[in-house]
């Protein structure tokens, strides 16, 4: 089988082939094919229960696919013999919930995985952490504890924590949906900056403005299948499928 290649001629960042996922008798993903080139931002939209988050969680094997293949930079993460931890280390993932350690300062939250997984010295981990806190606009909060931060600040810390692991790509699972509306913009601004720097991103989102402005590809899912995909501006302005039209008429 020929290996799909990205826009720069190397293996695609993420290649999902005929992905199925069932929970008991409930088939949540029914043969998904998604291709993410290096440097691309692919936004996934759709109603609740359409399989968006399950798709994202399968990409780094937080959920074990029932069948199908997932390749990360040309290496099959779904291969039973794959070094999953090594492949997963290339993929940052930020969730709706921030998953910060409440008893640790912001700086320590960013350093602990670097030291344990990346085997960095404490001084090196601190240097990397401070650089990424500055990137997300929180250099002045390194000594704070998560409880003393707003939801938007905690989410930006979560992004900085993942960036500190030097991922090749980032997965974002509805990272703004738990935030107060006035805090959403700061988080989206960080994601826009990452996209501008060329970070490969797969983003499950309800933020249609972000998808239109930042996305290179928009994927609309419903009922465990991809109903429509294409250029975000084209899909949002002129959806071809009636299910896409019905969904967008409610959210736009």
Brief digest:
This protein has 252 residues and is α/β, with parallel strands linked by helices. It is built from nine helices and ten strands.
Q: Major β-sheet, in short?
A: 6 strands, mixed
Radius of gyration: 18 Å
Mean pLDDT: 93
Count of DSSP strands: 10
- Strand percentage lies at 15-25%
Helices and strands, in order, run as EEEHEEHEHHHEHEHEEHH
Spatial shape: globular
Q: Give the low-confidence spans.
A: 1-9
Cα-to-Cα separation, first versus last residue = 41 Å
In which order are the strands of the major sheet placed? 6-7-8-3-9-10
The portion of residues assigned to helices is 25-40%
Helical stretch count?
9
Judged by helices, strands and strand pairing, the structural class is alpha/beta
Q: What does the model show?
A:
Helix 3 (106-116) packs parallel to helix 5. This protein is of the alpha/beta class and 252 residues long. It is built from nine helices and ten strands. The radius of gyration is 18 Å and the shape is globular. The strands form two sheets. A six-stranded mixed sheet has the order 6-7-8-3-9-10, sandwiched between helices. Strands 2-1-4-5 form a four-stranded antiparallel sheet, covered by helices on one side. 42% of the residues are buried.
